[in-house]
Amino acid sequence: MSGRTQAGVCPERTCVGCRERAVKGELLRIVAIEDACVPDPRGTLPGRGAYVHPVPACLDQAVRRRAFPRAFRVPGPLDVKALRHYVEQAQGCRQAADTSAEQATR
């Protein structure tokens, strides 16, 4: 035997907010366009990417730690308004889906 496993390998990334490793599909890719952090849910935008859990807590930690300028290697702060709006909207959709699924099981 070669010592290799037959299971497929899932790429992992580190969340810049909480610094935990997770499967790439669980994290939201972010890119810097000009002076703003822009969400890239499809992962197709060009340039250096950073990853964060799509929850407000991880986003707040990343902003507080100034992780985005460091990850993108840019001087100065980056605008995170569009990113925050996307995360809050996604959080609201997840909560609504959880509520409807919970009601369906009753």
- What percentage of residues falls in helices of 4 or more residues? 25-40%
The SS-based structural class is alpha+beta
Could you give the order of strands across the largest sheet?
A: 4-3-5
Pick out the low-confidence regions. Answer: none
The fraction of residues in strands falls at: 15-25%
Mean pLDDT value: 88
> Helix-strand pattern, N to C?
EEEEEHHH
User: Count of DSSP E strands?
Assistant: 5
| Head-to-tail CA distance between termini | 50 Å
Biggest sheet architecture: 3 strands, antiparallel
Shape: globular
Radius of gyration: 16 Å
Question: How does this structure look, described?
Answer:
The chain is of the alpha+beta class and about 110 residues long. It is about 35% helix and about 20% strand. The protein contains three helices and five strands. The chain has helices at about 55-65, 65-70, 80-105; strands at about 10-15, 20-25, 30-35, 35-40, 50. The protein has a three-stranded antiparallel sheet with strand order 4-3-5. The chain has a two-stranded antiparallel sheet with strand order 1-2. The termini are far apart.
In brief:
The protein has a 3-stranded antiparallel β-sheet. It has a two-stranded antiparallel sheet with strand order 1-2.
Descriptive key words:
106 residues, three-stranded antiparallel β-sheet, 37% helix, globular
